[in-house]
Amino acid sequence: MRSNVAKKQLESKTTTGTASRPYRIEEQVGYLLRRAHQRASAIFQVGIGDPNITPTQYSSMVKLNEYTELSQNLLGRLVGMDKATMQGVVRRLKERGLVDSRPDPGDARRTLLSLTTEGNRLVTKLLLNGPAVSRETLKPLSQQEQRQLLDLLSRIV
Amino acid sequence: MRSNVAKKQLESKTTTGTASRPYRIEEQVGYLLRRAHQRASAIFQVGIGDPNITPTQYSSMVKLNEYTELSQNLLGRLVGMDKATMQGVVRRLKERGLVDSRPDPGDARRTLLSLTTEGNRLVTKLLLNGPAVSRETLKPLSQQEQRQLLDLLSRIV
DNA sequence: CCCATATCGTTTGTGTACACACGATGACAT
DNA sequence: ATGTCATCGTGTGTACACAAACGATATGGG
Fold it and tell me: Does any strand D atom come closer than 7 Å to the Cβ of B21?
């Protein structure tokens, strides 16, 4: 009973005169994004080829593979990670000998990051599995729908 | 140079004869889902009306508001949370006096959860802001695109 | 040159998120 | 009734994710 009060109040119109649908948590973007992200992470974990590499570690390594050397902060911006989060990701990659760092000779505030030989070898291997992971995640959709989803997602990011 | 080797190898065909595009991390579903989820969470945090309530806490409370009483495990399934994750979410909600628990009289393994009066009052208030949060998150898209995105997301979950 | 301001990386604290192991309980077949 | 197997909640360990505060360094204006 109590809950119906809340639901009623939510049935206000949006912009059009169309009656808005009841508020269901399962139909909200945020909720769906969380669930979809969970599933994508699970597929990544089993499909990328190394159970100890996480999605964020992977994207960091891919970016370092592209740019050779990057400051920690710039890398964070490129892969969409908070600097505090980046700190942990980099620390773990360094502990595993996949990433190296040196002070930026031109700016004492910065740390320059690069892949080690082993890091380079590992990304090269994982990159072979990358497309399959994406394909598996998108499998429920047709080719056209896959493109649509990628387009829509990139526009709300 | 080294990285070009990896990229070359990834340019294998998918199913059709179409030349596949180069592998860019920014175009992969998993990456886009992570970024989109980040943005949705940020919008939620400022828009839901209580900075101390997180998206998972919110969806748990909404479900408890719908069902009145649920076992912790079932609630977890309904909102897509691991039981270990659920444990933490419920503990925090209980600490704040928003949720109550009692042993299931018919099954000693289960804990039954419900909203307290205060929890009920809070969800009712937050539910008023829910639609605006979703609207804000989807703002970059047209009405039709919004529906499409929700449809595509629910199909890959 | 100096000062206000900004950037960079670190640290701390809180909160998801999941794997794994554990103990208690329930369900079911023999 | 008993033993096997599943379910439920808990605890531990690891890893994102971000806010806030901090010290060190850089930059640009006066």
Answer: no
